[in-house]
From TrEMBL:
Presence of keyword Lyase: yes
Segments forming domain Tryptophan synthase beta chain-like PALP: 97-370
MF terms in GO: threonine synthase activity
Family: Belongs to the threonine synthase family.
Record protein name field: Threonine synthase
Known cofactor(s): pyridoxal 5'-phosphate
Top-rank lineage group of the source organism: Bacteria
Pfam families: PALP, Thr_synth_N
Domain Threonine synthase N-terminal: 2-79
SUPFAM superfamilies: Tryptophan synthase beta subunit-like PLP-dependent enzymes
Native source organism of the sequence: Hymenobacter luteus
The keyword Aminoacyl-tRNA synthetase is annotated on this UniProt entry: no
Highest classification ranks of the organism: Bacteria, Pseudomonadati, Bacteroidota, Cytophagia, Cytophagales
Enzyme class: lyase
Amino acid sequence: MRYYSLSRQADTVDFRAATVAGQAPDGGLYFPAAIPRFTPGFVERLPHLDAGEVAYTVLAPYVGGTIPELELRRICAETVNFPFPVVPVTDHIRALELFHGPTLAFKDVGARFMSRCLGYFSRHETRPLTVLVATSGDTGGAVASGFLGVPGVEVVVLYPAGRVSPVQEQQLTALGQNITALEVNGNFDDCQRLVKQAFRDEALRSRRHLTSANSINVARWLPQQVYYCYGAAQVRATTGQPPVVAVPSGNFGNLCAGLLAYVSGLPVAHFIAACNANAAVPAYLATGQYAARPAVPTLSNAMDVGDPSNFGRILELFRHDYPVIRELLTGYSVSDEETSATIRRVHARTGYVLDPHGAVAFFALDDYLRRHPQAQGLLLETAHPVKFPAAVEPAIGEPVPVPTELQELMRQPKRSILLEPEYEALRAYLLETA
Ligand SMILES: *Cc1c(COP(=O)(O)O)cnc(C)c1O
């Protein structure tokens, strides 16, 4: 499989080069030159296949021989070695729970696959690889956990002091080993600015081999197809219908992976792009015109993205054909008031506790199903509610119990290095520890 840059100035590359580089040298996102098709037999057998087998079948054409079969099978099995239950919430809505991985969010799937691929590709490197990543909460934890104990790789995560939830902070700071947390006295934009400056610093890069764990990396994007295959097949097996799938969306990597699986032949009736007040894509779907906007803060803060990177991949997947995209995809922008009210209402009626991102998707899906009463809905629950207590607990009027898997981590000491939001401070740290 070859990958070309959506900016079309750079050369095409294989999976290995696309994964190691992250972004093409012309600044574009990498995109597969041909979309593989699933065999009809694969789609029929899906409900009976184990997740590792599904992952291998879906991903092998994309990896295209850059990782030997046995190694890739092992990586796939490790990527999806936790459950993805489909849980009924109402008569017509099921939740595909993607939060049973080590950091309780769907980003574990992409981060685990990418970390193991990078570990394989850099196995003969003598210089350690430093993964430098800025996080507003979920990304850093998933990346840190994915790379924990991977030989030859060090992870340095920058996060904004006081702006991540207690669970998220433990997931960044309590792992130890090859993971270092830098607690920046500033906001997420400061963290991102420092990281970008480090990547531009040639003198620093000659001393430390830096790579990003950016969400646009193909090795984070592609494996997300796997749980769509699994979830859609489960709904079809129980109801006889392909589901309407609602995806809480921010940077649109997750939804774009679902669309990719659909183009490859996965039966899905319709997709819903469920957004908070950051509504660039819903506005495009309503009008055919796209305009980036400044990001605004919301309760579902992992989706506070004003100009989603993966939107370009969605356009490319459908050859910029707006009528085709509009036929398959409906956009919603859900307010914080509607999000809180949805968490409260669903909990009161069903006992199910949504996280704020899942609540955005529930609200959108519920509205869509009212107009399409024969359809079956599947919402992607992208994080465990315990990660967002400030949004969830006031709505349900009680604390969210900490899952047993997490209790041990919550007892570990927090270890972080405080950093002023100035580039010299980050640079000094990276040079001292090189
Ligand atoms: C990252 C994240 C999202 C948004 O996913 P995208 O692929 O960026 O659209 C949604 N929900 C949660 C909980 C997240 O962490």
